[in-house]
Structure formats: C-alpha cells, structure tokens
Amino acid sequence: MVFAASLSHPSSLQLSSSFLHEQSLSSSRSNHLTALPLVFSPSTLSGKQSCLQKKLIVHAKRVSGLEEAMRIRRERELQSTSKFKKRPPLRRGKVSPRLPVPDHIPKPPYLSSKLLPELSPEHQMHDAEGINKMRAACELSARVLNYAGTLVRPSVTTSEIDKAVHQMIIEAGAYPSPLGYGGFPKSVCTSVNECMCHGIPDSRQLQDGDIINIDVTVYLNGYHGDTSKTFLCGNVSDPVQRLIKVTEECLERGIAVCKDGASFKKIGKKISEHAETYGYNVVERFVGHGVGTVFHSEPIILHHRNEKPGCMVEGQTFTIEPILTMGSIECVTWPDNWTTLTTDGGPAAQFEHTILITRTGAEILTQC
C-alpha cells in the first residue's frame, strides 16, 4: 500500500505507493539552448528608396539540465492548475476507536511497538510454498479492495468503508496489516481528492465528484498482500477522470518492463515517460517496496527517473504504486503524522499492485 511502501511518518523512513524517499538531485549537468524574446531593430538603407528592415536577433544562453527541468516543471504546474476546478479543501472528520481483532487471528510482529518499523534490508525471495502463500494473501487483498470499491458513493463515510473492510478481512482469518502499524489507527487507508496517501478513515461523508484511493493490505498465514486503487464517487470531472486513467496506465507500463534480470530504474523511466506525455507529474517522495513475510523491505521502487542500481530476480515480490498529480508534487502532512496532501490542493491519484518476478516477466498477484 502506499503503505505501499508508503506509510509516511516523521519518526523513521517514511513509507508509501509508500516509503518516504529523499533523493539528492543529480550533479551531472547537460547543456541546452534556450531562446529569449525575439527583438526587432530598424535600419536605414541607402539609395533612392529607404525602408524599414526587421532584423531578427536571437539571444541564446546555456542552461543546465537541472534549470531546464525546473522551468518545465513550473510551466506544467501553472498550466495544469487551470485544467480542473478545485474542490473544497479536505477537512478531517472524527476518528472512531480502533476496531478489535479476534485473539485467534495471527498478528504481525510489529504490533509489539507503536514505533514505525525500520525498513528491512533483505529482499524477499520465495520458494514454491512461499509463492503459494503470497498468492493467497494477495488474492484476498484484491477481493477486499474490489468489495470496498462497491461501497464508494456520495454520503458514505470513510469510517464505514474501514469497518466493512475490517470485517471482511477478519472473517477470512487474516489481519488488516495497517492496523497498529507504527500506531496507524485504522484497518485501511482512504485518501480523498488532494490526499496523496495515508488518509485515516473518519466521519467525513464522501461527496459527489470526489475521488478516493483505497489501500488494502492483509496479513494471511504470515504473508502480506498489498494493493490499492483510486475510485470515482458520483460525477467526477473529465480532467480528473483522465488523471486516474493515466495513473493506472503508468502502473501497467511499469509492470510491463519487469522480469528476471531487468534493472529497477526501468520502472521509473516508463512511468515518467507516460505521465509526462499527458502533462502530469510523478510524486517522488513515496515509493514501492519489497513485500512478503515483512510488510516493507528492500528493494525501494522509485517511480520517477533515477539511476538506482540493482536488478530484479526470479522469485522476488515487491509493490509498484505510482502517485500522479495535475500540479505540484510537493506535500504537507497533517498533525496526525499520516495524512499527506498536495500543497496546491490539486487532486492526486494512485494505483498499486504486488508483483512476483518470473523468468520471462511479472505475475500480478493482486489481481482477481
């Protein structure tokens, strides 16, 4: 889940799609030519006839690749903010008490502490038995997510969605992985409109035209299955629907390059290329992650262009969970230390799958 590796939390490595990733900008610089405004200057010609001749003077200067990238980003953000009508700012509702889990259901080890667990450095590889257990956990999380999506409609509260998800998970003999993870108080993440990730279910009613990402992770027989999807609530504007569609396509393109021996950086390249085609921006702060017997582990999966080393290995499982925005990719986190919003109030969309690397490609485990 954007717990995917993405539970953002100030006390440790912040997780989302979802771990907090802070990456320094590359020091390499490339030269480009940029044209300043065109200048026309008159000159007088000798002879019986004189006329005004326009001289075209193009002034050029060299700028670094970083400067050019920043200029392009600013232009995109200014253009994209005019594409949609902002909805009223998200306001926090009342958060109800944590729901109970029956004693007989096995629980993950991180519940012994309210601190956010450290990212495990071990890549999660599986034998045949482990793969079967991963498939079972992921299949359950996918079914729960699909069910949660059927509940999305105006007037429904995110707390009601959380309660329904919680009940379905425990009835299947599984544990809702977010519950108690680093002190997270609910069983699912519900991120509405400008909320990038880690929204805490509360008493706020969904409104006609809202969008909501529901992030489900279950812990079944010692394995975590992690997935999320952005749903439409009622009549959503065409520009926002397009953002959601392209975000899902970005996830599909990221998965398409995965196979044994492929470099991880190909994922971010494909996602960025597709997002930029439509003028959208890829959030860099939240990333994908290894998942299996441990909720969050290496490898960190960057969704933007990067030079992160490393290659995929057959039998490995991890999440890919890009977040796209129509405007700024900068964010602000509420005092609850979880709910993270775009700074400009623009909408954000996210999709996530857990995948298994195979010799020739990738198996999407969180697909019904």
TrEMBL record:
Quick one: where's region Disordered? 76-107
Note on how the cofactor is bound: Binds 2 divalent metal cations per subunit. Has a high-affinity and a low affinity metal-binding site. The true nature of the physiological cofactor is under debate. The enzyme is active with cobalt, zinc, manganese or divalent iron ions. Most likely, methionine aminopeptidases function as mononuclear Fe(2+)-metalloproteases under physiological conditions, and the catalytically relevant metal-binding site has been assigned to the histidine-containing high-affinity site.
Query: Which cofactors is this protein said to need?
Result: Co(2+); Zn(2+); Mn(2+); Fe(2+)
Q: Where is the signal peptide?
A: none
* Entry EC number(s): 3.4.11.18
What InterPro entries does the record tag this protein with?
Answer: Creatinase/aminopeptidase-like (IPR036005), Pept_M24 (IPR000994), Pept_M24_MAP (IPR001714), Pept_M24A_MAP1 (IPR002467)
Spell out the reaction equation it catalyses: Release of N-terminal amino acids, preferentially methionine, from peptides and arylamides
On whether Ubl conjugation is a keyword of this UniProt record, the answer is no
Under the heading CDD domains, the entry gives:
MetAP1
Gene Ontology cellular component terms for the protein in this record: chloroplast
Q: Where is the composition biased (Basic residues)?
A: 83-95
Q: Which SUPFAM superfamilies match?
A: Creatinase/aminopeptidase
Q: Which residues bind a divalent metal cation 2?
A: D226, H289, E321, E352
The entry marks the following residues as binding substrate, namely: H198, H296
GO BP: any one term: proteolysis
The organism's superkingdom is given as Eukaryota
Binding of a divalent metal cation 1, residues: D215, D226, E352
GO molecular-function annotation terms?
Answer: initiator methionyl aminopeptidase activity; metal ion binding; metalloaminopeptidase activity
Q: Does the keyword Transmembrane apply?
A: no
Keywords, ordered alphabetically: Aminopeptidase, Hydrolase, Metal-binding, Protease, Transit peptide
Instruction: Show the Pfam families listed in the entry.
Output: Peptidase_M24
Q: Which family does it belong to?
A: Belongs to the peptidase M24A family. Methionine aminopeptidase type 1 subfamily.
Function text: Cotranslationally removes the N-terminal methionine from nascent proteins. The N-terminal methionine is often cleaved when the second residue in the primary sequence is small and uncharged (Met-Ala-, Cys, Gly, Pro, Ser, Thr, or Val).
Q: Which PANTHER family match?
A: METHIONINE AMINOPEPTIDASE, METHIONINE AMINOPEPTIDASE 1B, CHLOROPLASTIC
- What is the protein's name according to its record? Methionine aminopeptidase
